[in-house]
Amino acid sequence: MSAAPLEIEDLVAGYGRVSVLNGLSMKAGPDGNVGLFGPNGHGKTTLLRTVSGLVRPRAGRIRFFGEDITPLSPRAIVERGLIHVPQGNRLFPDLSIAECLALGAWTKRARAGEKENRERAAAIFPRLAERWRQPVRTLSGGERQMVSIATGLMGAPRLLLLDEPTLGLSPKLKEELAAAVRAISEAGVPLIVVDEDVELLLGLASHLFLINHGAVGAEIRPGETIGHDAIMAMYFGH
Ligand SMILES: Nc1ncnc2c1ncn2[C@@H]1O[C@H](COP(=O)(O)OP(=O)(O)OP(=O)(O)O)[C@@H](O)[C@H]1O
Question: What are the alphabetically sorted keywords of the record (predicted)?
Answer without folding.
Answer: Amino-acid transport, ATP-binding, Nucleotide-binding, Transport
